[in-house]
Design a protein that fits this description.
Elements lengths: L2 H11 L3 E4 L5 H13 L3 E5 L2 H13 L13 E3 L7 H11 L7 H10 L1 H10 L5 E4 L5 H11 L10 E7 L10 E5 L9 H18 L5 E4 L10 H16 L5 E5 L1 H5 L1 H7 L11 E3 L3 H14 L3 E8 L5 E3 L6 H15 L3
Helix pairs in contact: 1-13, 2-13, 4-5, 5-6, 6-7, 8-9
């Protein structure tokens, strides 16, 4: 059983409710049907039920991707008629009062911006998580999440990760890795890199298994001298202070982190060298380039960017995502919500 199949089975074992704001997007509608049919999660769609069904019928009549769509298992939250709107507006205004938001302004935002309504449903426990991004940009998806959900307890930074599933790979956990942060924090400080590593380890543990964390650099254990290396050394020190029981070390070059023979040669006796399955990159350039190289050249499956360190599960999609991508990210989001 592959990674995403295991995640789906885990999601089915403790069913969560995921809200999908992009209810007029045909890929989202098709994904919603599959999620419900497979029993991966309960689904909330934002908008008028009859209008959403008419949109689906339009695609059916055109022979499009929504042919034969069945949304009978979905719940619908229509901003124009939802009974809980007034209460949500009061709570949103309270959350944003420092920015001067009134109840009237909050109500208008909830009626006109599906992302804000969706995040408030998550905030109030009506939904367990949100997935969007087939239509909206990353910035549009993340802004209400950061404003409303904020960071998780004990975490100072929201970041992202990719689950990389590399075929025919002898490294990591059967070729399954977490790469972080590949999508949000541009140039983390040492303290921020340590926080990203802690979140990435927690993400790996929740989704896959026992994390072994490598803090990546162009240097291995002092082989190069540079302020960029100093940052990774400092991040490693802080991570060990925060998580003394976590199997983590650095600074490592990539090959020393994942290839046992090279790890043994460059860092003899080190418990992480050559064994890492969580790779923490020193900046967004390296991380973004790294995951795309592995995805394209090694033909890896890349699931993400998945958000970590946020108050409740909220995840972004690529605007070029497929129906299968949406289903997979919803399954991951549902698993993230388990035990919240």
């Amino acid at each position: 059983m592959g990674f995403i199949e295991k995640i789906k089975e885990q999601a089915k074992a403790d069913l969560k409710t995921i809200v999908l704001p992009e209810s007029m997007e045909p890929r989202t509608l098709k994904a919603a049907e599959r999620i419900i049919k497979e029993g991966i999660a309960k689904v909330i769609l934002i908008g008028d039920e009859s209008a959403i069904r008419k949109e689906a019928e339009k695609y059916e009549s055109q022979g499009g991707s929504c042919l034969g769509l069945d949304l009978s298992g979905a719940d619908f939250v229509d901003p124009a008629s939802y009974a809980g709107m007034d209460g949500l507006a009061v709570k949103l205004a309270e959350l944003r009062k420092a920015k001067g938001m009134t109840v009237e302004e909050a109500a208008e935002l909830l009626k006109t911006k599906p992302l804000y309504l969706s995040v408030m449903l998550v905030k109030e426990g009506i939904a367990d998580g949100m997935v969007a991004g087939a239509h909206y940009s990353t910035g549009e998806v993340m802004l209400p999440g950061l404003q409303i959900l904020k960071t998780a307890p004990g975490v100072s930074l929201v970041s992202t990760f990719f689950v990389m599933v590399v075929p025919d790979c002898e490294y990591g956990n059967g070729g399954v890795f977490v790469f972080s942060d590949c999508g949000l924090v541009q140039n983390p400080s040492g303290a921020q890199m340590a926080d990203i590593a802690r979140s990435a380890a927690d993400s790996y543990r929740k989704l896959i298994g026992e994390p072994i964390v490598a803090m990546l650099s162009h240097s291995t254990k002092g082989s190069a001298k540079h302020p960029d290396v100093d940052k990774v050394v400092e991040a490693t020190r802080l991570l060990k202070e925060m998580c003394p029981d976590l199997k983590a070390d650095g600074e490592f070059q990539l090959d020393a982190a994942i290839v046992p023979s090279i790890g043994a040669a460059k860092a003899p006796g080190n418990p992480v060298a050559g064994k890492a399955n969580v790779l923490v990159f020193p900046d967004l350039d390296a991380a973004n380039i790294g995951y795309k190289l592995v995805e394209r050249l090694a033909k890896a499956q890349a699931y993400g960017p998945i958000t970590q360190g946020i108050g409740k599960p909220l995840n972004d999609l690529s605007r070029g995502c497929s129906v299968e991508d949406i289903v997979g990210v919803v399954a991951i989001t549902a698993v993230q919500a388990q035990g919240e």
